[in-house]
Design goal:
By secondary structure, this protein is α+β, with helices and mostly antiparallel strands. The chain is built from five helices and ten strands. Strands 1, 2, 3, 4, 5, 6, 7, 8, 9 and 10 form a ten-stranded mixed sheet that branches. It is globular.
């Protein structure tokens, strides 16, 4: 038995997310495509785990997967074979052996989400499928002020439509903003996110950055005094990277 880790990227446009919602298992998903390809190549039914589940239409630049297999196929050969049988909107960037303790989903990690923004007098017809077009760039200082209210450990149920009775504590670590005259990328780093939470937080930052909302509204959202249900468009949102933070060398 060997444990393998895959790093994959995908265009999420036509997929119903990483995994279909309950009672919608017949929808096309990234998990379904990769699982089918692995079963075909390894000739066994494997259980596939991912670091962070992307929502419908959301892309990934650095998704991490793990699984165990009895196959003796070398990681390099598996990577090559997968890229031959997977659809063109899914690619395996890396495949390697890892410790049997490694688990893409359960190991402590930081997830980094990215939102791509473009501005100008007219939309860029070649990039508008993967970038959010705005008339003007949002104010980075306003968004950093907003993040000062978001940073830290909070009950984040208010930022996801998924109903939870008990508090769901998550920690947000940093907001990095890169921009030029007509482009901007937001990089939001935190622990595990609830469904649709990355899109909601990104839109909240945008609304504050464009002056639609004030940063002082965030404490009242956490307190349940006000609700917020905005969502940044999925076509401009990416799972940018996964950073594992375990100190145990035998986890890898």
């Amino acid at each position: 038995m060997q444990t393998l880790m895959l790093t994959v990227e995908y265009d999420g446009t036509r997929y119903a997310g990483w995994k279909a919602a309950p009672k919608k298992e017949n929808l096309d998903t990234v998990l379904g495509r990769i699982h089918t390809a692995l079963a075909r190549l390894l000739k066994e039914d494997i259980q596939l785990f991912c670091a962070a589940k992307t929502d419908p239409g959301v892309h990934a630049r650095g998704q991490i997967l793990s699984f165990q297999t009895t196959s003796s196929l070398l990681p390099s050969a598996l990577k090559s074979s997968l890229n031959q049988v997977l659809p063109q909107d899914i690619a395996v960037l890396d495949a390697r052996h890892v410790s049997e303790r490694f688990h893409a989903e359960l190991l402590p990690k930081h997830c980094i989400w990215e939102l791509c923004i473009k501005t100008g007098p007219t939309p860029d017809v070649f990039r508008q499928k993967y970038t959010l077009f705005l008339p003007d760039l949002p104010d980075p200082l306003r968004m950093q002020e907003a993040f000062s209210f978001l940073k830290g450990r909070h009950d984040v149920r208010c930022f996801s439509p998924v109903k939870k009775k008990k508090a769901v504590m998550r920690e947000l670590y940093s907001l990095r903003i890169e921009h030029s005259d007509d482009e901007m990328q937001l990089f939001l780093e935190g622990s595990d996110f609830l469904p649709f939470m990355p899109a909601t937080l990104m839109q909240l930052l945008l609304d504050i950055g464009t002056g639609t909302l004030d940063a002082c509204c965030i404490p009242s959202i956490f307190a349940g005094e006000h609700s917020y249900s905005g969502h940044a468009p999925a076509h401009a949102l990416y799972l940018h990277d996964i950073v594992y933070i375990s100190d145990r060398k035998d986890d890898f």
